[in-house]
Structure formats: structure tokens, C-alpha cells
Amino acid sequence: MQIKRKISDYKKERDAEANQEPALVYTDGAEYVERDKGGVVFCRLKERTGKLDDMLKTYFEQASESGNAVTGKALVDYLKNHLPVEIQEQIKTDFEEVNPLD
Q1: Residue spans per domain, the chain
Q2: Measured between alpha carbons, how far is 63 from 56 in angstroms, rounded to an integer?
Q3: pTM for the whole thing?
């Protein structure tokens, strides 16, 4: 129920906002990203996969050890490479489209 409320709040705030927000994959350095968008998208992805916590922990540990910068694009590429094929279209929608919660 909390996610549905956050999605509703996101849509209301987005519609009232004058700035155009980018897709999540392109938010590095963006001037505006609605505060709940990323959290809602990750919660929905976790509901579908059930294993997101360990996967994200591994990703951030590997990025830290390698010294590579963590970017939205790198994270999305990692998710695409480590989640089942049937989730790929949802990842694309959630992270690469501007309004994934519509």
C-alpha cells in the first residue's frame, strides 16, 4: 500500500513541477529528480525479483574495490546482466523511460 501511495504522490508532484526530469539512468548530475522516483522503482523491482538486496550489495562492493565511479548507466547495465530475461523489459521501462510509473 505504501508504494501505491508513493506512486500517487510522485505523479502529483511531477505534474506540478515545472522542470523536466530525466530518466533514472541519466540522473547523474541532473538538476531535478523527484525524491521518491528511485525508491519506488527499486521497491517494485525487489518485489519482482526477491533478491535485489544482495545483488546491489555485491555491485557496490565491486565498484568500491575497483575504484570505478558508480553511475546510473553502470548500475542499470549490471542489473540487466544479472537479472532474468523476463525482467529486462521492466528494467528498461523503469530506468530508461522518463515516466516509468505511469
Answers
A1: 2-96
A2: 10
A3: 0.71
The mean pLDDT value for 63-70 works out to 85
Q: Return the C-alpha cell found at 62.
A: 565491486
Name residue 11's amino acid.
K
Q: Can you tell me which residue has the cell 538538476?
A: 31
Q: Can you tell me the distance from the alpha carbon of 39 to that of 41, in angstroms, rounded to the nearest whole number? A: 5
Query: 3-class secondary structure for the chain?
Result: CHHHHHHHHHHHHHHHCCCCCCCHHHCCCCCCCCCCHHHHHHHHHHHHHCCHHHHHHHHHHHHHHHCCCCCHHHHHHHHHHHCCHHHHHHHHHHHHCCCCCC
